[in-house]
């Protein structure tokens, strides 16, 4: 009898296990696939869904109609390496160690792929997802074509998706190189006289041509997005979350390498069928450091609490009305060119920027490396215009020379033209934001560790020679 009872218990347990296996498999199947598409150097205002009606972005327009568009999405830093490191770790630059461009995050910092792998996902990357050729250290199951402007980055992702045969849920990161410079050599159908110039721009013919080339690069990115979306819809099906965004603003004066909104505010669109109502917009403030915990949350995991980011999945599910009340951003330098450390805090209405070395002269590749083809080469025309046009002179002077503190009322002045830091009417606001930023920096352990030599004078009107061009010439000789 004892043996018979034991046998019945064993059979009963086996039946329970057998019955639970389909449930486990079904739960695994219910996990959504995740697609992250990243543009490179794309400003938040430079697409159709975000107000530029002269640029052609039909695929992004379609994605916005199918999902929710974030009007207040920001990056942690307006340079490629620190921005992407923040995305892939959920940490701000001072905590990852990737503060300057193109520095790498510390080896012991946990990376995004491991969180998703823990949830049973296959995690892969194609194109520029991390900074160029840093992808291997992030722990993806597979990656391809992460070199500079590799034309096979997007096509390889499409081929891989079509050939994939796996029952695991998939998280695929696809990084376009567009609209990063070099821009297309021609305007590809864009009329320079009709393009939309940024608020702080000197209107010269070569500037308009450069902007048309940038718009052409934006359209190339959009075409790549369309190819990926079409393939995703055919191969992965409806149970797929798509998140689109950009690592920072365009390589344009007062955008990339700056803490103005043109540098740190980015487009972000999320399509999540059955959860997000199509065609929605939200003004909830989110940061790129929030993407990691959000994806973990969407994947069914518990978002980590020991990082700087926090999940905005509740916002997407409709269970939370907002997200952040402030955004902090940092910038240090881009190797030896852009040596100008700055920090900022931005609320819904106010922006405070602390330029840590106002004695330095602000420079970027834009004014230093005008000999490089496909970079616009327009800045000398700004400086020439400044010799005869007071308005152009003011813009150029503002580009090179920054005060220690900047304060902007974004409600009244969204283009950040009028610095209110010296106005006594706003002294209380200034002090509040100053104190808030310093407290955050102390909490982060954020100190200025810039090792490169700063620029202390403006370059020649024609621009400084490009070291890469000079090195190439030496090799040729």
TrEMBL record:
Region (Disordered): 445-477
SUPFAM superfamilies for the chain: Alkaline phosphatase-like
Keywords carried by this UniProt record: Signal
Signal peptide: 1-25
Compositional bias per record (Basic and acidic residues), positions renumbered to this chain: 445-458
This protein's record includes keyword Signal: yes
Alphabetical list of CDD domains matching this protein: SGSH
Keyword Lipoprotein found: no
InterPro entries documented for this protein: Alkaline_phosphatase_core_sf (IPR017850), GAG_Ulvan_Degrading_Sulfatases (IPR052701), Sulfatase_N (IPR000917)
Domain Sulfatase N-terminal: 32-300
Entry-linked Gene3D superfamilies: Alkaline Phosphatase, subunit A
Protein name: Arylsulfatase A family protein
Organism: Massilia cavernae
